Amino acid sequence: MTLAEKDKLDEVLEYFHLKSSELKMTASETVEDEIKVLQDVIKFAQRKLEESTGEVKEKIQQVIDFSEEKIEELQLKTSLGSDEAKEVVASIADQMEELIDELRKSDVMKRVGDVAKSVGDLLGTLGKKVGKSASELSRVIALRTDLSRLNSKRRELVTQIGEMVHKRLSETGSLVLTEELLKLSKEVEKLDMEIKAKKEELKRVGKEEDLSEEQINTIIKEADQG
Q1: Could you tell me the keywords of this UniProt record (predicted)?
Q2: HSE on the CB side for 38, CA within 13 Å?
Q3: pLDDT digits (tens, 9 = 90+) for 38-88
């Protein structure tokens, strides 16, 4: 699974988790809102599906299949009373979380999943505090995902540079600044600029979404650690 492929699955699972949180917040008597939440999941996942291959494509398809199945289930329960509808929706939200855990079986995806779940819980909580749903915070979510991806790429490049330096020193006892090292170093510098710009954009959008400075900084910190 390449980094680019992992990013696509990460985005889908993070969005899926946020929507499960939204389900728990918006249980209605007609379950129409809940059906729309799952339809949003399908639309988002289908876009990522078209860009994916192999194992990632299979996992994203599982998210789509699950959502379609639960939409059919909800459509059969539109006549339920409010309390019964809430129980059904809560059960579906729990099943969504179980599916997320199942799709994060490898150690790498488990690490990414922990970050996504943490941020998802954070944004779900923030949504309640500022009176917004997860979908209304979609710009913040998208920027946080972008920032996490950029940070991940930077860590990979820095690790690659470190391995090259170590290999060179262990083999020759000296370090020569090769064209390859210079190229990687410039790529890190470029990523540093992109990361700085993305953080500024996230701060600006966060303020537009009525998030506090502390809340915005927490989101940025999570992305830096991801």
Answers
A1: Coiled coil
A2: 24
A3: 999 999 999 988 888 888 889 999 999 999 999 988 887 766 556 677 788
What Cα–Cα distance (Å) separates residue 134 from each residue in 4, 58, 71, 126, 205? 25, 26, 19, 9, 15
Paired tokens of 9: 């699955």
Question: Token pair of 44, please?
Answer: 């988002």
Measured distance CA(5)–CA(40) in Å, rounded: 21
Name the one residue in this structure whose structure tokens are 């540079």: 161
| In the block, residue with structure tokens 């299949």 | 65
Distance in angstroms (rounded) separating the CA atoms of residues 219 and 144? 7
Per the structure block, which two tokens stand in for 74? 């909800």
Residue 81 corresponds to which amino acid?
A: G
Q: How far is 143 from 175, CA to CA, in rounded Å? A: 38
Helix (H, G, I), strand (E, B) or coil at 134: coil
Q: What's the rounded Cα separation, in Å, for the pair 12 and 156?
A: 22
